[in-house]
Task: inverse folding
DNA sequence: GAGTTTGAAACT
DNA sequence: CAGTTTCAAACTC
């Protein structure tokens, strides 16, 4: 049963609404769940390399019943008593470099050993090699881990409606069609997907570390629902890079309200260790109890791209979606979810209905009392912060910022007419004083998730209180926003998911559901530094405990500071109108700003042309806007060019070569001729040495100047002779013995630097003279300042 | 700064 | 897919 009508489905990008893929995925042979075959070594992966970058995110829900650690990283949560779950993600979900465990035999399923490792092969399945011990037998008492033994796959970690961390443990045959469930024996069901949640306090990755670590709740299997999203990479010829996303929604067994997670119009399975699992069909609502006002539905996402990076709890980025009303525990909630993860898209959609029993069908309507969908993404101290764009129209757009991902995501939702009145509570917001949000019914909505910006490095998710619908997460920086006027571009919409990473889509004010504004991501990131991104579906979102997610990622192999500090060079385009990839600005998804281009169309005034150009580029190359430098395969260099260079004359030792320019060596996929950009190349080494020497010189000179200047300033300050009240002394009177000595030190330093650099004497003399001039100017400056600033003391 | 070289992007 | 053209950056003088 499909929630989304075929018509709507047809409008959605395949990446999001590829419900067929789900069916296909169910029929996939087992090897599709295994890591990519070795053939990828010889065959350049067409999948953007960023998806190959494993990411490790640790979830540390408080629980004493289970511990999971990653053997590949030795990363552990900071508490010995808390449940530890390490999720490694490869562009989408957690991935580690360990070999995925084989499916266990039925006999193994009877035991519940401790989880020794969590692995996730390239197919984006998280595999738990061993599971925390728990009482044997079918009984899965509260506090006992229900994860299956070695080889079991944990696909997604998230939060239950009540804020409990959810771990989805899949049986080894999970890839089989799991549309029905057997009896109450919650274990070893061939088609059963198990969900493990931590009961008690809201224990979510999004929560602060203290919140998680401090919690003493036990891991408990609960009745739950699972959703499965099968998604294929947009472009992949490197093998069965099939990504599976299991969205889980834990339901308390005592639940009386309903929650009907709907992903891409299809609900796959439901299982519970406590009660007999049953199949969930589209639109079906399962009652559940809202435990408290702070209950929420959260989806933990680990889209970080950094390889081998282990993130503590505080580093986990979670996109949370409010799904609960504190005042209406009986309200049914439907949560279609699409949330973009890296290139993957996971849309989180939430709706609430007044009907306590059944709700959330595809015919649900939306009533938007608070026209806002905000996703705030935060990162610390970097320019990679995300910006929340206030929505002036009904919440038909959700910006989803996935920390660690190089993309910003915006979910475009075409909401139907509203009818629901149920209130939805903020996922993290527990502030009762906040105005309750109206229900958001978007079951039949058209959802689009669009990567909108390159996002990498540290992200800090700090939900900020929102007291009104019009509020959006603000940043600590200049609230400047550059938003293109939205226009109706239906001809482009089908490809919205392929928009360049620098494109942000936002609904246009008064332009209806199909209005879009294109906002280059870099501008967005400039707006918000740091940006605290919060995803919520209502206006009551707030939290007393900011959630911080920090990741140490890099963009194109550059550190965050490096990537951010480097000012983009202005382009000089004259013929391309800055609407072709010749233009670096355009290629980077940025507007031209302070460029020297002629007849530039890469600006706000030429939105339509720009969109068309983007579409054209994407038509030619769907990954045209992906970073060219990405993570190489295992065993290869950390960074490599995704396509390889084609140099013929430069020997790949000039900046003509994109590999050399990126300071990486050419790889096997390069088609260059006479390449000298390889590890043992003497030419390359020579160049590197020269470059290093030059850099060292610069650094030394800078440091020396800084130090000596500081000394001079200090001396001038301390030894400033008293000035007469009649105008003070002349500057030369400030040349005390100390000042003269410091000046000589400066000159000698210059001489030494020149000597170290093997500079000729003339150059050394010149440097010394220049330094002397600077010293004199500084002395004079201080003298003048002393006269001005010290009229009393001098 | 003008002219040349270079290789990616675009085009055929 | 290969060859050619266009383009803008890198480079040289």
Result:
């Amino acid at each position: 049963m499909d929630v989304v009508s075929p018509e709507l489905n047809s409008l959605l990008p395949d990446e999001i609404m590829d419900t067929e893929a789900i069916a296909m995925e169910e029929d996939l042979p087992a090897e599709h769940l295994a890591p990519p075959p070795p053939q990828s070594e010889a065959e350049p992966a067409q999948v953007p390399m960023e998806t190959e970058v494993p990411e490790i995110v640790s979830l540390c829900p408080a629980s004493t019943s289970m511990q999971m650690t990653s053997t590949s990283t030795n990363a552990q949560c900071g508490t010995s008593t808390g449940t530890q779950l390490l999720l490694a993600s490869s562009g989408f979900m957690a991935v580690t470099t360990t070999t995925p465990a084989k499916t266990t035999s039925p006999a193994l399923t009877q035991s519940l050993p401790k989880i020794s490792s969590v692995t996730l092969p390239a197919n984006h399945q998280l595999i738990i090699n061993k599971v925390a011990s728990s009482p044997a037998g079918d009984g899965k008492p509260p506090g006992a881990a229900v994860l299956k033994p070695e080889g079991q796959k944990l696909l997604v970690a998230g939060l239950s409606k009540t804020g409990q961390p959810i771990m989805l443990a899949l049986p080894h045959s999970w890839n089989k069609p799991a549309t029905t469930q057997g009896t109450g024996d919650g274990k070893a069901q061939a088609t059963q997907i198990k969900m493990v949640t931590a009961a008690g306090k809201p224990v979510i990755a999004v929560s602060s570390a203290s919140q998680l670590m401090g919690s003493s709740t036990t891991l408990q299997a609960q009745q739950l629902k699972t959703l499965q999203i099968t998604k294929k990479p947009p472009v992949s010829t490197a093998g069965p890079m099939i990504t599976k996303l299991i969205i889980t929604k834990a339901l308390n067994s005592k639940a009386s309200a309903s929650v009907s997670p709907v992903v891409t119009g299809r609900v796959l399975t439901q299982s519970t260790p406590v009660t007999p699992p049953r199949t969930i069909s589209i639109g079906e609502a399962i009652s559940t109890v809202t435990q408290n006002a702070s209950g929420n539905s959260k989806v933990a996402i680990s889209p970080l791209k950094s390889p081998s990076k282990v993130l503590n709890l505080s580093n986990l980025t979670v996109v949370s979606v409010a799904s609960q009303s504190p005042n209406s525990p009986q309200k049914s909630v439907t949560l279609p979810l699409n949330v973009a993860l890296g290139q993957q898209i996971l849309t989180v959609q939430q709706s609430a209905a007044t009907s306590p029993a059944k709700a959330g069908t595809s015919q649900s309507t939306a009533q938007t009392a608070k026209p806002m969908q905000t996703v705030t993404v935060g990162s610390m101290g970097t320019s990679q912060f995300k910006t929340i764009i206030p929505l002036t129209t009904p919440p038909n757009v959700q910006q989803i910022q996935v920390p660690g991902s190089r993309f910003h995501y915006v979910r475009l939702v075409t909401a139907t007419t509203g009818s629901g009145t149920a209130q939805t509570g903020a996922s993290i917001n527990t502030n009762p004083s906040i105005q309750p949000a109206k229900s958001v019914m978007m079951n039949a909505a058209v959802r689009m998730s669009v990567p909108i910006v390159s996002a990498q490095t540290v992200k800090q998710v700090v939900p900020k209180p929102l007291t009104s619908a019009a509020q959006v997460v603000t940043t600590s920086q200049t609230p400047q926003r550059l938003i293109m006027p939205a226009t109706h571009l239906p001809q482009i919409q089908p490809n919205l998911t392929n928009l360049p990473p620098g494109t942000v889509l936002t609904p246009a004010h008064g332009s209806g559901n199909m209005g879009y504004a294109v906002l280059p991501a870099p501008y967005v990131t400039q707006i918000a530094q740091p940006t605290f991104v919060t995803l919520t579906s209502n206006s009551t979102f707030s939290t007393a405990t900011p959630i911080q997610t920090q990741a140490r990622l890099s963009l194109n192999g550059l550190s965050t500071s490096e990537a951010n500090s480097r000012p983009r060079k202005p382009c000089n385009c004259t013929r391309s109108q800055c609407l072709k990839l010749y233009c670096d600005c355009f290629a980077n998804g940025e507007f031209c700003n302070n460029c020297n281009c002629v007849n530039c169309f890469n600006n706000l005034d030429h939105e339509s042309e720009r969109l068309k150009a983007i579409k054209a580029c994407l038509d030619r190359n769907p990954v045209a806007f992906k970073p060219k430098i990405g993570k190489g395969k295992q065993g290869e260099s950390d960074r490599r060019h995704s396509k390889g260079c084609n140099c013929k004359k430069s020997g790949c030792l000039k900046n003509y070569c994109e590999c050399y320019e990126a300071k990486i060596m050419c790889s096997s996929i390069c088609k260059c001729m006479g390449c000298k950009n390889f590890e043992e190349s003497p030419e390359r080494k020579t160049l590197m040495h020269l470059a290093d020497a030059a850099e060292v010189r610069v650094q030394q000179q800078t440091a020396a100047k800084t130090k000596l200047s500081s000394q001079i300033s200090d001396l001038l300050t301390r030894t400033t002779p008293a000035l007469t009240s009649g105008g003070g002394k002349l500057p030369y009177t400030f040349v005390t013995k100390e000042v003269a000595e410091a000046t000589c030190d400066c000159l000698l330093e210059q001489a030494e630097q020149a000597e170290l650099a093997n500079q000729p004497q003339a150059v050394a003399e010149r440097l010394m003279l220049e330094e002397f001039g600077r010293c004199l100017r500084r002395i004079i400056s201080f003298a003048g300042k002393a006269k001005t600033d010290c009229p009393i003391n001098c």
In short: Residues 124 and 381 of chain A are 30 Å apart (CA to CA).
